[in-house]
Amino acid sequence: MTQASQETTSPAPQLPAAPRYRTLRRFAGNRLAVIGAAIIALLVLLALAAPLLAHYDPVFDQDYGNILAGPSAAHWLGTDDLGRDIYTRMLFGSRISLQAALISVGLAFSLGVPIGIVSGFYRGAVDAVVMRVVDALQAFPSLILALALAAALGGGFYNAMVAVGIGFTASFVRLARGQAMTIRNLDYVMAARAIGAGNLRIMWRYVLPNALAPLVIQATFAMGTAIIAEAGLSYLGLGARPEDPSWGSMLHIAQGYLNTNPTLAMWPGVAIFLVVLGFNLLGDGIREVFDPRLAR
């Protein structure tokens, strides 16, 4: 075979894939992360479509002729102690859990990240004061701190989520501070400072974007913890109202019927387990994508 024929039959060189496609392929290659993303996508879909998928009102439709009934054609997952449809309450409970994750983690992120970046960037007296407050907050277990703050704020779902968010803020402050301390000394930040960029521009343009990856990973894991915290506070009567279809409130009702009707506790318990597992798997997948040391 001649050299010309070899050149014509040789395969064309493959161009490297764009970085975003490589990132998607790395994420798709992690099956557990894909499963986690699918669980969270299903949670969001059920929360948005709950009014369309539900058969009854989660609070006011009470079938007193079918109290504590098992699964049937009329009530797919059975009924609770007031004859309310468990399937409907599970659907609307997904809304409360999703709100709990978004409100508490959103509050912690929006408070903790700016404080942490400013503290780590400027250091000095500002950093000393901020870190002493963070140390004091982290001296308490997060759930105990949330319980104390929720009780001080007067209970209720939104007050409970504010309490959980305040408890999460310290971890975001510490993580953002560590990222800012590292990034502030990198070459491109020094170059930006040399050409006259101000501190606010440097923090907004260079520090924050390069610190987002670990912060997003932290937020993903925190959402799962927030759902557990909301369920725990609602179980204790400091979160959602008892009549609201919170998975924690449903567990509180089910504790009195564990011997006679254990499925009352099974459905919300399995839902909490799956959703928290989904957020943890998704967080692991995102960490693997953004951390080059974990690249396969």
Concise structural overview:
With 296 residues, the chain is mostly helical. 72% of the residues lie in helices and 0% in strands.
Assign an overall shape: elongated
Number of helices: 11
Terminal Cα span: 39 Å
What is the residue-mean pLDDT, rounded to a whole number? 87
Radius of gyration: 25 Å
In terms of DSSP E residues, the strand content is under 5%
The main pleated sheet reads as:
none
Q: List low-pLDDT spans.
A: 1-8, 12-17
Count the E strands: 0
- By helix and strand content, what is the structural category? mainly alpha
The sequence of SSEs as H and E is: HHHHHHHHHHH
What proportion of the residues is helical, as a percent range?
Answer: over 70%
SSE order and pairing:
Layout lengths: L2 H7 L9 H10 L2 H23 L32 H37 L1 H15 L3 H12 L3 H27 L3 H8 L4 H37 L11 H8 L8 H28 L6
Helix pairs in contact: 2-11, 3-4, 3-11, 4-5, 4-7, 4-9, 5-7, 6-7, 7-9, 8-9, 9-10, 9-11, 10-11
